[in-house]
Design a protein that fits this description.
Length: about 220
């Protein structure tokens, strides 16, 4: 937050909002939902008050906020936000694909079944074909979905999502961050092996030793 505070007076509103949304998503991933949502709400309010509620910049930030709300566990609120902006999104073709992707993911989280699972996986894996960054985003989306649905007591669907993440990542994701660690841990779990200690240690470094995802993988 120190860096953010230093640039507050000189940074443009869209740039500031993008920074805040990125920070909020990181906090949501760190299992700090209240802080994440507070930052998202402030970023959306400032942006949309400045440029208008149906402007492209406002809608882009509101669409990004849906991702943070979903990760933070506020699925119903994320769905309500998506529904509220859909009429305006329909007039902004650059945002339609992202909105449709979020709709598929939320459909699955709100009503998990074979059909919504298949659609969520299809949307993510299709988006991964657009390049290196979309692939990384798709892998993370699938992993977050896997962790979320696993925590809700549906390991079969979680493993299906994890398999899709592993297949989508291929050899493209290396290193020791959150995503590579989760890919390794899910790969071991699917194969019936114990969680690799190095992957657990890397995940602890990325997310913290008390993070619920780490605690869950530690038991497998």
């Amino acid at each position: 937050r120190a860096i953010n505070s230093d640039t507050r007076s000189t940074e443009s509103i869209p740039s500031r909002a993008a920074r805040d949304i990125t920070e909020a998503k990181a906090l949501a991933l760190l299992a700090r939902p209240d802080e994440a949502i507070a930052i998202v709400e402030a970023a959306v309010a400032k942006m949309c008050t400045s440029v208008g509620k149906e402007s492209l910049d406002c809608l882009r930030v509101r669409l990004s906020s849906i991702d943070t709300l979903t990760i933070a566990g506020h699925t119903e609120r994320a769905r309500a936000e998506l529904i509220s902006i859909q009429p305006a999104i329909a007039k902004q073709p650059p945002l339609l694909a992202a909105a449709n992707s979020f709709a598929a993911l939320l459909d699955f989280l709100l009503l998990p079944n074979d059909k919504t699972l298949a659609r969520a996986i299809a949307v993510a894996t299709t988006s991964a074909k657009a390049g290196a960054l979309p692939r990384r985003n798709a892998v993370r989306t699938l992993l977050v979905l896997a962790e979320t649905i696993d925590a809700r007591g549906n390991p079969a669907y979680a493993e299906a999502l994890a398999r899709a993440a592993i297949e989508t990542a291929g050899d493209a994701l290396g290193g020791s961050g959150m995503d590579p660690s989760l890919l390794t841990l899910w790969g071991a779990r699917i194969a019936g092996r114990s969680a690799p200690p190095d992957a657990l240690a890397n995940l602890a470094t990325a997310l913290g030793e008390s993070h619920p995802w780490l605690l869950e993988h530690s038991t497998h």
